[in-house]
Fold this sequence. Notes:
Layout: H1 2-9, H2 12-21, E1 29-38, H3 41-53, E2 57-58, E3 62-65, E4 71-82, H4 85-102, E5 105-112, H5 123-126, E6 129-130
Antiparallel strand pairs: 1-4, 1-5, 2-4, 3-4, 5-6
Amino acid sequence: MKDQIILAQQDTNAIIEELLEDGSDPHALYIIEHHVSSQDFDKLEKVAVEAYKLGYEATDPDEDVDDAGNVVIGFDIIAESPLNAELINAQIAEIINLTAQFGVNYDGWGTYFEDGSDDDFDDAELMETVH
């Protein structure tokens, strides 16, 4: 599991650097989405409950079909956080430990560009996640 955590954390600095190079606000609070999936809805539900107990939020589950034709269910574990690699890497470790406990997949994390304005945004911005 330690190798999985290290591997998942390797992309954190690159994602943060990409956001900042594109002009994202370094002082904003970001919605961090940790992607979790499984073919077993009951296991995912247990992960969501435990994540909530740890202070996270969870999105509604979505179904998809993988390349092999299997139905996969996924949802996001949500945290609000500054764009800080140490904090995000701590979240990754905590969530991977949780997913391992229930035998589901941790599929990485993503967030959205923040320009620092409080203006309303349009739906197109929701589609611009950086993973």
